[in-house]
Amino acid sequence: MNRLTVVLPLLAALACAGSTGSGTDEAGSTSGGGGGLSSSSSSSGSGGSSASTSSSSSGGGCGGCVVLASEPQLPWDLTVDATNVYWVNQANRTLMKTPKTGGEATLIITATGAPYGIAVDATDAYWTAATGSISKVPLAGGTRDTLVFGEDSPVEIAVDDTHVYWAATGVVKRAPKSTGAPVTTVASGQVNPYGVALQGGYVYWTDYGDGTVKRASVTGSPPDTLASGLGLPYGITTDATHVYWVNNDLEGSVMKVPLGGGEPETVASAQGNPWAVVVDETHIYWTNSSTNQVMKASKDGGEITVLATSLSPSFLAVDETNVYWTESVAGRVMKAPK
Prior knowledge:
This protein is mostly beta strands. It has one helix at 4-7, and strands at residues 52-54, 65-70, 75-80, 84-89, 94-99, 106-110, 115-120, 124-129, 134-138, 145-148, 157-159, 163-168, 171-176, 184-187, 193-199, 202-207, 212-217, 224-227, 233-238, 242-247, 253-258, 265-268, 274-279, 283-288, 293-298, 304-309, 313-318, 322-327, 332-337.
């Protein structure tokens, strides 16, 4: 079985997500998405959607939520920079962006294979694709550069100043951001590595196949196991002192451990199949896929806050004031105050 069928239970909604796009890479100016949901803002004349504020359109319990984009094309991973939100649509194989303050959704490129993970730097967007490629394109759109071919089910992706990193079946790898540069295997002999994060010269990753969180030097070294015996660890992130992750099993927990190793701690338990996780200076945020919630808690644990009850929240990102997430089944990109 292809491991993407294991880690993508929400893809069952793909049949309802609209038709697929073309089979060639094309950059453009505005979205060609298949229209918005009736509860979101009306679409613009060029096929994009502008932001609207709603207290009920995301399933209730979402006061102050804003629909940034409404395109039923299975939006998946997303990230933000100072001005824009970027995401991938799996159904029509597109990379998209929209201003964080609201506005029209813009097509960056249409890919040849369904995109999965996305990361950005100051000039380019990078993504993994079901075709086994790692590619980049200017944030303003343009020609795709395929950095790597032939990977086995690459999923999550991260970038630093010089390299791009990703998890694929059994391995964690990196490659320079320039086309045609050699690929380095950071760690081999893994089972099903999934989330990847960077901090202090190390790559951190979850492996839902053997229930571990590990790290290795970015240049490659024997992996250190930071936590084991976990139930389907998926999303992962870091700050200056800790690595944080979510366990997507029925018990559903959010955990952390010091970057260099130590005793793992539970930040939140009894969650609804948590999927993705991010942090800011003081708090940790995650999505609960089975209870349709966007959550928040102090990094030290304690009171847990439901920020939004949402339709199929998947991946998320934060900035100084807001949390952003994709609704994979509903086909929307959302934001709400933190």
